[in-house]
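FAQ: What does the model actually see?

It sees only this:
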Amino acid sequence: MPVTAKLSKKFYDVLGEDVANELVEWFNQVDATYRTDLRELNELNFQRFDAKLEQRIAGVEARLGERFIERFNDLQKEIANLRGELRVEFHREIGSVKAELIKTYRYFWAPVVLGVIGLYFKR
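And it is asked to produce this:
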């Protein structure tokens, strides 16, 4: 919103109407020029700021991406280690269950076999 310069009545009386109006018009032109220059300067500064901001955001995104990949790889390694440990533990438990079953079967089949032998000889 442009501001129009006005001078006092005494200024108009001393310089005259034409000179005072010319001076006011010159002030307004200078003001418009400065406003235009200031707007252009602000636009250039904003463009520089925007470019730097984009550059910094891209750098941060790249670093975050690298960290994400590192953490993901660490997680995959940890999962692989856990799977290996679980397999070992699973096989150990399966072996222990098999051993227990063999003991149980021995105690179960011994009387059955003795009973069958006894029936065979009893005839």
